[in-house]
Amino acid sequence: MVTLSSKHSKTLELIFENPTRSDVNWQKIEKMLEALGAEISEGRGSRVRIFLNDIRAVFHRPHPQRETDKGALKSVRRFLIEAGVR
């Protein structure tokens, strides 16, 4: 079991908040995933591949804004549930 810092715990809380937020910074999500032990690799363009607890996912980094939209945040939420984080 990984113990997250308070900053990463806050990011995790924001991801699972209802109603779904549209103001979570993508960099903070990536840093939290790294803290959980995820392997993150670059894909083509804005794609980023994430591997955590034998679960793989591909996400698109938001651009030009830094915040993740609601649809992408729901996908991150599903990924974390599948990976057994929550």
Keywords:
86 residues, Metal Transport, Frataxin, Chain A, three-stranded antiparallel β-sheet, 5 strands
What is the name of the CATH topology?
A: Metal Transport, Frataxin, Chain A
Strand content: 15-25%
| Strand order within the widest beta sheet | 2-3-4
What is the mean pLDDT? 92
Q: How does CATH name the architecture?
A: 2-Layer Sandwich
Q: Characterize the overall form.
A: globular
How far from one another are the termini?
12 Å
Number of domains: 1
Order of helices and strands: HEHEEEEH
Helicity level:
25-40%
Number of DSSP strands? 5
| Number of DSSP helical runs | 3
Structural class: alpha+beta
Sheet having the most strands: 3 strands, antiparallel
What does this structure look like?
- By secondary structure, the chain is α+β, with helices and mostly antiparallel strands.
- The protein has a single domain (6-82), classed as Metal Transport, Frataxin, Chain A (2-Layer Sandwich), CATH 3.30.920.
- The protein has helices at 6-16, 26-35, 70-82; strands spanning 24-25, 39-42, 47-52, 55-60, 67-68.
- The longest helix is centred in the C-terminal third of the chain and has 13 residues, at 70-82.
- It starts with 5 loop residues before the first helix and ends with a helix.
- 22% of the residues are buried.
- The model has no long low-confidence stretch (mean pLDDT 92).
